[in-house]
Amino acid sequence: MSEPLRPIPAFLTEGVGADRGLICGFQFGGDAVPREITADTMLESLEKPDSITWLHFNLSESRARRWLLEAQLVPNEMREVLREHDGNRHVELVDDGLLLVMNDFSYDEASDPSEVAPLWCYATASHLITARMHPLKSIDDLRLAMRGPSQAASGFELVAQVLELRTLHLRRRAQRMIDRLDDIEDEILAGDIREQREHLGRTRRVCARWRREFSPERTDLAKFLHRQASQFNPKDAESLQAEVDSLGFAIEEVAELYERAKLLQEELASRLAESTGRNLYVLSILTAVLLPMTLITGVFGMNVAGMPGLHEPGAFWRVMLLVVASGVVTLLGLIWRRLL
Predict the structure, then answer these.
(1) 8 A C-beta contact, residue 88 and residue 103
(2) How far is it, in rounded angstroms, from Cα 295 to Cα 129?
């Protein structure tokens, strides 16, 4: 950077770990395994030549926010979005670095697989600074990947790795929904239509949210790389473009998943309507058969003078025979008219 790095304030060097705002830090050099760094060794790591440094902060910690707003290696544009907690998607070339505000999956997938939260990134050729308010899945996977052999030629390549991990999560979650839709389709075709409506509605809602969150971001990144690809070295530009294309393919899979869930909902609605119509048909037939029987019992149920058979032995059985005969005649009439 053109400006010299300021010393790390005491409030960040008092301790190590997430309790001080620095969730993790890694330095990439010639070794196969990245070297983990702490808050009190950040300055040394950032000044070391021919190395790549990644610092990941927890913005819910006030000390980390304060340091990021004061550090000289953080550009003014990055400080502004951090100060405002601006989570709107953003991609911009700032000086010699890339400022990116992207959505990442929430760590708690069980409650809502579509839940996302912003991740703030600033990458240069020599370092990557990331920050988040809530635990996020893809960036945490990158942290875990640093425990094993991992290499990065620049901070831009680390951003590409974050995008790759997020796309991988999107595809995995979409694949689980596809497997569930396969089961629902089999159940619908088999005639079991009891509980699928809720699952199909949830699938469409999740897919709609994924498309709403990631499709505009993919478009913004594609436009940015089309305009600014010459500002990156060919390897970094190729890595970023490959992840943008991969995200585009994943979004297409989500769109197909949405359409498939919609078609299954229509099939389910059609089968429900068919089942309802069949039930109404049976009810109509029963109503037609019972109507004359009900009329006879109603007439003979009138408690008025002059009712025939009121004092005759066997009158009850003759009336019952008349009731049954009227029902049989009505049923035969429906069969003759081919309504059954």
Answers:
(1) no
(2) 85
Band (32; pLDDT cuts 50, 70, 90): low
DSSP H helices in the chain: 10-13, 42-47, 62-70, 76-84, 137-145, 155-189, 196-228, 234-300, 315-336
Is residue 212 situated within a structural domain? yes
Query: Into how many domains does the chain fold?
Result: 1
Total-model pTM: 0.77
DSSP class of residue 231 equals G
Inter-CA distances, 98 with 176, 204, 216, 231, 242, Å: 34, 34, 18, 10, 17
Q: What is the CATH number of the domain that holds 159?
A: 3.30.460.20
CA distance 139 to 59: 14
A 10 A CB-CB count for 132 gives 21
Q: 3 burial class (0-12, 13-18, 19+ CB within 10 angstroms)?
A: exposed
Q: Residue 119: what residue type?
A: L
Of 226, 3, 222, give the one whose Cα is nearest residue 96: 3
| Position 2 in a domain | no
The answer to whether 146 touches 24, Cβ cutoff 8 Å, is yes
Instruction: State which residues form the domain around 234.
Output: 10-270
Q: Is 90 exceeded by the pLDDT of residue 326? A: no
Q: State both tokens at 279.
A: 């039930």
Q: Which of 27-31, 188-192, 273-277 has the highest mean pLDDT?
A: 273-277
52 located within any domain: yes
The order of strands in the sheet holding 97-105 is 35-36, 22-28, 52-58, 127-132, 116-123, 97-105, 90-94
Top-confidence residue, 247 or 3? 247
Most confident listed range (42-56, 64-78, 162-176): 162-176
H/E stretch holding 56 reads strand 52-58
Decide if 28 is inside a domain.
Answer: yes
Which residue's entry shows tokens 């996977």? 141
